[in-house]
Design brief:
alpha/beta, ten-stranded mixed β-sheet, Spore Coat Polysaccharide Biosynthesis Protein SpsA, Chain A, two-stranded antiparallel ribbon
Length: about 280
Amino acid sequence: MSKRPVVIGLIRAWNEDIILYEILEKALQKCDHIVIMDNQSTGNVGNIIRRFKGIHQNKVTTVYYDSRKQVHESGERHALYYFGRAVIDEYSGNNKWFYTLDADEILDCTRDELDNTLVDAAKKGLHGLRVKLINFYINREANEVDKIIEDGSFEDMRKYAELRLRERPYLYRHVPGFVWKLNLERFHSCIMWHNNIEDYKNPAIWGTSNLWVKHYGYAVSNQDLDDKCERYREWVRQGDAGHLGDWRTENTKRNIFKDVPELARYDDIKAGRVKYVVSGL
């Protein structure tokens, strides 16, 4: 089991123009191959994906998908998994994994750290791993989108994160004879399972890793978050995502400087120099 694991990254993209190229570069550093789904993005996303694929031809598969024909975010993840299966079957080995990220998330580890984690998980017979997901927010220290583009590194410009982490299932082992399933009746489902939706609670199947995922969905700009809110509200108005609750109102736009939880510097959180809370999904 010491052979290096095969890792296929599955990435959903929707209008993350500002950070997308950096996200893809960092993802490919940890994967043998990535599958990128462009979900009817506007703006420059298509050009960014084409440019990235042009540089990394044999390590990138692109998919263009209209989730309005499915169940939005759950439908996207389900379709992306099936495209990923076709890719992962081309690789040999008995320790093969998917990791699933949105295009505003970075898996914060080296490839060696990821490999060691997956080798250990396979030895234990685990089929999936949870990670610690942490939300970053805009702060007054880094509020100029133009400066991010000029300076090059979005990750370096965003340093402040929420003191509440969520354990989320992000890593799935490709096990012969098993097909991962997803709850397509849920708008924002992220839990996949083999036989029972409660499988992720079974410690013999699912484990908790020490890997962290940095989520930047609240950290781009006020306008970007407003656009995302409007997209969700439109889905609710169409009757496709009624269980989202707060998205039913017309007043869910947020001023990020005012409506934020308690924040601390990410380095201090990860090093344990400040207290944080870990919650479930």
